[in-house]
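User: Here's a structure from my thesis project, written as structure tokens. My advisor, Dr. K., wants to see whether a designed sequence matches the one we expressed. Can you design one independently, without my sequence as a hint?
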């Protein structure tokens, strides 16, 4: 029996681990991939205080070491379902393993949203990518497009200019959603151009991506743009499949908590990108994790 079972080993889960273990709670983190979650796919992190610039995998490893240093156990595995009611919470992993905890912190984050157009699945890994850090180097001196107008599209689009000959950012509106500093960088980058008010309707290729079909959202005018790569950054979806139907999810599938990271079910807390929250950053994830762990601590105290 653990005091706390933390689902997910991204920044929120790892920070929760540090705070839980330092409160003498017997703590395990369950993670299906590498420590760090989305940080693993982020080359440059420059807005996590204390680190002017650090690569995501390095920050991930530092946080992982930090948590295990204080005695957090690390369990590789994928969560299949959670029995949340009652005083003993049971986490079922794919493969049949079971973990039991007094409190659960849900921190399984979010994953890239698909664009949902023909050719996207077919050419995934053959020109279509959701990770510039992973795949950018394959596009040295090639032409790529980036779909989206948020922080990810601009940050990753700018990163891709290290490799690509040109980067065309295609946005469905005439105004970007991204932070001004990222907009300024992209506007000042000679390798980046923009196509506004335009949707990608089809990804076309022959073994690998060759072009995208476009439609202007205002005029309906259709066109084709030759490209070697399509990087898709149209937002994220919460990893809450294993909680489907639960009352703690909102209509979009994010977990609803109060300011103490507590859900409406006693002993069930949530932290990070999986929460219904206005800002999803590494720093907000770690902050959520700390609060969730301390709330879990106070909750377990009430059980004794
Ligand atoms: P996001 O903020 O949700 O932006 C998604 C973008 O994709 C929007 O511009 C949206 O257009 C567009 N889009 C959505 N669905 C689309 C569709 N079906 N077809 C075409 N375009 C579509 O997602 P994000 O940029 O991945 O950022 C996610 C979170 O991480 C945000 O909270 C962001 O601040 C954070 N983040 C922060 C940093 C940083 O601080 N350096 C870096 C990366 C991400 P509309 O604008 O028209 O809705």
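Assistant: Designed independently from the structure alone:
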């Amino acid at each position: 029996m653990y005091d706390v079972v933390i689902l997910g080993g991204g920044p929120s889960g790892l920070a929760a681990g540090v705070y839980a273990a330092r409160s003498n709670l017997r703590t395990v983190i369950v993670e299906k991939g590498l420590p760090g979650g989305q940080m693993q796919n982020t080359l440059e992190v420059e807005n996590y205080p204390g680190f002017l610039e650090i690569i995501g995998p390095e920050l991930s490893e530092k946080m992982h070491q930090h948590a295990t240093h204080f005695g957090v156990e690390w369990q590789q595995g994928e969560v299949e379902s959670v029995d949340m009611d009652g005083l003993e919470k049971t986490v079922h992993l794919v493969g049949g393993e079971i973990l039991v905890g007094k409190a659960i912190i849900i921190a399984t984050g979010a994953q890239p949203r698909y664009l949902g157009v023909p050719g996207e699945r077919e050419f995934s890994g053959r020109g279509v990518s959701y990770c510039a850090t992973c795949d950018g180097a394959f596009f040295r001196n090639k032409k790529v497009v980036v779909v989206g107008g948020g922080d990810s599209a601009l940050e990753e689009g700018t990163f891709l200019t290290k490799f690509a000959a040109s980067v065309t950012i295609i946005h469905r509106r005439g105004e970007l959603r991204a932070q001004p500093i990222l907009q300024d960088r992209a506007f000042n980058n000679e390798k980046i151009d923009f196509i506004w008010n335009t949707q990608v309707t089809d990804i076309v290729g022959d073994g690998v991506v060759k072009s995208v079909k476009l439609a202007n959202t205002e005029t309906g005018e259709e066109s084709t743009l030759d490209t070697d790569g399509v990087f898709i950054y149209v937002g994220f979806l919460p990893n809450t499949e294993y909680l489907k139907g639960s009352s703690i999810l909102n209509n979009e599938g994010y977990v609803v908590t109060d300011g103490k990271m507590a859900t409406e079910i006693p002993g069930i807390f949530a932290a990070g990108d999986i929460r219904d929250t206005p800002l999803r950053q590494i720093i907000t994830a770690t902050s959520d994790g700390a609060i969730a762990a301390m709330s879990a601590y106070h909750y377990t105290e009430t059980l004794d």
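When you compare it with your expressed construct, this may help: The mean pLDDT is 96.
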